[in-house]
Amino acid sequence: MVRFYYLVITAFPIIVYYIIKATHYARHPEKYSEETCFMLAQKLIGIVRKRGRISTEVYGMESLPKTGGYVMYSNHQGRYDALGILGAHPTTCAVVMDYERARKPLSNEFIKLVRGKRLKKNDPRQQVRVMQEIVEELKEGRRYLLFPEGGYTDNHNTLQEFHAGSFKCAQKAHCPIVPVAIWDSYKPFGCNSLKKVTTQVHFLEAIPFEHYQGKKTAEIRDIVRDRIEERMKEIAKKEGRCG
């Protein structure tokens, strides 16, 4: 958290400027395209990285589908996760966040800017409605980032349980799934230090709809989780540590 507060204090005027700008962009979608808003979001991420002394190594960009909608499913470690992934993503992409987390300062403006969705954990009807909206948008070619673990604690580089229901939107939209493995993403805002920190984002090989067609969501979950876990074991072995 030290780094987060350091960012807020040292870059306060810049943050306020971009919050005002982001709010204006989000309120006028007729003037500012999704691409324009996403570029502003990436500028914000760039400021966070530079001011926060954070760098992110990106692997597997070639694995991302060149056209059409798809869903990226990533493990979850901390506040920096979505920033690390979307900052590396070459095209517009929305993110799905917990409703309460998405209402916090900065998160609120960010999710509006990328035109993401908020899910209420204790409101099944709202969840169904939002997921159906995501399905329709995926069919139209939008891209989404979801965290099937649903949240994070102090898991660091250890995977938690994936929720099978998270995979229904990809299943119903008949779109590719891109597993994403993040490493050391908890460190930027989870460690009480201002030392330079490096995180990793690994876009894994996309899974076409034809490869998981007919499978239950629990089976799809296991496929995605296994691929992420395998990559994390490879990283751990390369790094000479276990997380």
Overview of this protein structure:
There is one protein chain. The protein is an alpha/beta fold and 243 residues long. 48% of the residues lie in helices and 15% in strands. It contains eleven helices and seven strands. Helix 2 (12-27) packs across helix 6 (107-113) and helix 3 packs across helix 4 (81-88). The radius of gyration is 17 Å and the shape is globular.
Question: How does the SSE layout of this entry go?
Answer:
Layout: H1 2-10, H2 12-27, H3 34-52, E1 54-59, E2 70-74, H4 81-88, E3 94-98, H5 99-102, H6 107-113, E4 117-119, H7 124-139, E5 143-146, H8 168-173, E6 177-183, H9 187-190, E7 197-203, H10 209-212, H11 217-239
Parallel strand pairs: 1-7, 2-5, 2-6, 3-4, 3-5
Antiparallel strand pairs: 6-7
Helix pairs in contact: 2-3, 2-6, 3-4
Spatial order of strands in the largest sheet: 1-7-6-2-5-3-4
| Ends apart, CA distance between termini | 20 Å
Q: Poorly predicted ranges (pLDDT <50, ≥5 residues)?
A: none
Structural classification: alpha/beta
Radius of gyration, in Å, reads: 17 Å
Number of strands: 7
**How would you spell out the order of helices and strands?**
HHHEEHEHHEHEHEHEHH
Number of helices: 11
Largest sheet composition: 7 strands, mixed
Mean pLDDT over all positions: 93
- Tell me the β content: 15-25%
- Per the principal axes of the C-alpha atoms, what is the gross shape? globular
Measured as a percent range, the helix fraction is: 40-55%
